[in-house]
Every structure is written in C-alpha cells, then in structure tokens.
Design goal:
With about 80 residues, the protein is mostly helical. It has two helices and no strands.
Length: about 80
Amino acid sequence: MVARVVAVIREGWDAFARYLAADPPPPLTDADCRQREDAAWQQAAAAIVQAKGEADLASGKLDEARAALMALATARRRPVPA
C-alpha cells in the first residue's frame, strides 16, 4: 500500500519536474480555472474597467497637483508686493 502511494507521488513528481526543467507552465486543468460569462461576472468586470479608468484619471490629476506644489515650493523667493 505505502509503496503504491510512493509510486503515485513519484510519477506525479516526474511528470511535473519536466516543467521545472524546461520552464513552461504546466497546462491548466478544470481544477485551476473556471470560465465565467454570466451577467454578474460581466458587471463586475465592467466595474473594474470603469474604476481603473477613474483611478488613472485621478492619478494624473494628483501628479499635476503635486508638480504644481513642488514648483511653488522650490521657486525662488520673491518679495510680496505691498
């Protein structure tokens, strides 16, 4: 019994080891992923795309505001007009 378990483990390892030696990923199986195309999935994916676009826009505005503040902070000091 133990010898058979060890043999099964060894066979599995030998099959997997070739992927380590050659560096390609092993093929996906049904246990690795599940294709989803239902409405809930589509809505969640659309929400991610929209949020990513909004985050990118906000990041750009943040970069612009930071640059303006840094320009003011590093500008030569000028006398304040009376």
